[in-house]
Amino acid sequence: MSNAELAVSYAVLILADDSVEITPDKLQTLLKTAGVDDVEPIWTSLFAKALEGKDVKDLLLNVGSGGGAAAAPATGVAATGGAAAEAEKEEEKEEEKEESDEDMGFGLFD
């Protein structure tokens, strides 16, 4: 992560902690006040756009909880789609096993 990205991340956390709406202008103002001048405006725009309508505190509290998965609809079509997705996962696992270096008979230091 670059210094610009890190500075904008900290600015986002400061604004979220104060329950202030995260906008590119507010991020840029906070960065200038902190004396961080080497941040291009694109970074503040990207972060503000990515966090638009989201509660940053809630995101931080639910890191790793697996809350990003969508609920499956209760239709017959969705059930067959889920089975197809599981079959694809199994095929990917089999392909990964086939492409391993150990199966080729040589190692990194041979």
TrEMBL record:
It comes from the Eukaryota. Plays an important role in the elongation step of protein synthesis. Belongs to the eukaryotic ribosomal protein P1/P2 family. Keywords: Ribonucleoprotein, Ribosomal protein. Residues 66-110 are annotated as: Disordered. One of its GO terms (biological process) is translational elongation. PANTHER family: 60S ACIDIC RIBOSOMAL PROTEIN P1 (PTHR45696), LARGE RIBOSOMAL SUBUNIT PROTEIN P1 (PTHR45696:SF10). It comes from Trichoglossum hirsutum. The keyword Ribonucleoprotein applies. This is Large ribosomal subunit protein P1. P1 and P2 exist as dimers at the large ribosomal subunit. GO terms for molecular function: protein kinase activator activity; ribonucleoprotein complex binding; structural constituent of ribosome. GO terms for cellular component: cytosolic large ribosomal subunit. It holds the Pfam family Ribosomal_60s. Residues 70-85 have a biased composition (Low complexity). Residues 88-104 have a biased composition (Acidic residues).
